[in-house]
Amino acid sequence: MEPNEAIHVESLFSIKGKTAVITGGSRGIGLMIARGFLESGAKVYISSRKKDVCDAVAAELSKVGECVSVPADVSTLDGCKHLAQQIAASENKLHILVNNAGAVWFAPIAEYTEAGWDKVIDTNVKSTFFLTRELLPLLEKAGTPDDPARVINVGSIDGIKAPFLETFAYPASKAAVHHMTRDLAVKFAGRNITVNAIAPGPFPSQMTKWMLEHYQKQIEKSCPLRRIGNSSDMAGVAIYLASRAGAYVNGVVIPVDGGICIS
Ligand SMILES: NC(=O)c1ccc[n+]([C@@H]2O[C@H](COP(=O)([O-])OP(=O)(O)OC[C@H]3O[C@@H](n4cnc5c(N)ncnc54)[C@H](OP(=O)(O)O)[C@@H]3O)[C@@H](O)[C@H]2O)c1
Predict the structure, then answer these.
(1) Which residues in the chain show pLDDT less than 70?
(2) Which of 207, 209, 237 to mutate to test the pocket of ligand 1 (most atoms within 8 A of CB)?
(3) Beta-carbon contacts of residue 254 (< 8 Å; ≥ 6 apart)
(4) CATH code for the domain in which residue 60 is found
């Protein structure tokens, strides 16, 4: 491409016609990304454990664009296989995978249970690895050198800087997601698949409800932009990474946190 070649900016951020899978798409950050993708003209599969909720959210989102519910528990290999098989039954390729489903566990260190630790690691780390692996054949079929398939992992700023709450397994899990992102980005580049991560700061969701009820003012004060994130902030970065505009971005972790990480 020559420096003065037309860029076609009108389609630079388009994901129209692409197919995406978003785990944890039934609420919070996953729902924000699903809504953004649908408004941009993508077909979106949302997945979460609670079938009735997942079905109801997909039905509601179908007013915006084509949205399909595929309930699954991605914290187990069987759950990841089930989800990948469901997608393969109706799609012959997949352009975008968003590994967003996540869990947190709060407890003082002496009371931190093995079950809590395993839940966090399995939901945040194991799921990302195995679901990506199970969907590789479909991702590989969608990717081209100019427009690779995209894996977008949802990490956290807690995987970059130590959080103030006692969530021990959580920051460890998110640092693992960030480094898995770099590792898989290198491993999959030859297959025309990029792997990047979004590291959100504070966004309103069920996961952060208690924290924001107790600490929102303190969090806003610690944020250079003096606010928490919203749906457009999250959808914007995900659409960028999924579109032609993000085609040459590979193996990065993008904090979306109003500058909390660097202050
Ligand atoms: N909100 C924030 O401020 C923030 C900040 C940094 C990072 N994050 C990350 O962003 C992601 C989304 O978090 P959120 O705040 O939106 O949390 P949330 O409101 O609790 O939503 C979590 C979503 O994941 C699904 N889920 C949980 N466990 C699952 C499993 N085993 N299998 C399949 N789906 C599962 C939930 O549905 P079911 O319960 O029905 O399964 C739900 O759809 C997480 O990875 C989180 O760590 C969030």
Answers:
(1) none
(2) 207
(3) 196, 197, 198, 199, 237, 241
(4) 3.40.50.720
